[in-house]
Amino acid sequence: MLTIANVGDSRAVISKNGVAKQLSVDHEPASERESIENRGGFVSNFPRDVARVDGQLAVARAFGGKSLKKHLTSEPDVRIETIDDDTDLIILASDGLWKAMSNQEAVDSIKSIKDARFAAKHLTEEAVKRNSKDDISIIVVKF
């Protein structure tokens, strides 16, 4: 069994028999607007920018951010997934990858690469090549 707990703008994706399945929720302010507003905060949407909590933070759930604590939650989204013989790999990555590639594109891009470290490097290079402007941190686990 694999337990994924997620807070922030990273994502976990598992591949089973080559099919990508998202295991975590992207905690974006626009999708959690109601809970942010219920805590007294607001979500801004300025042109050519991402939605932000109180005009500052681009995630709806986070650790830290003392000045925003009362408007956020650090309650993780938790999912449990069975690891079995059909499991190929898991990708854990920040939004710099996911803004440049879909879940399935990322899986397809590395499914034939045996070395997990090289697979993560390949995904990083691909996100940069696709002009990702966000942070890019990637871990690949191969089974």
TrEMBL record:
Chain ranges of the PPM-type phosphatase domain: 1-143
Pfam families, A to Z: PP2C
Name listed for the protein in its UniProt record: PPM-type phosphatase domain-containing protein
PANTHER family: PROTEIN PHOSPHATASE (PTHR47992)
GO molecular function: protein serine/threonine phosphatase activity
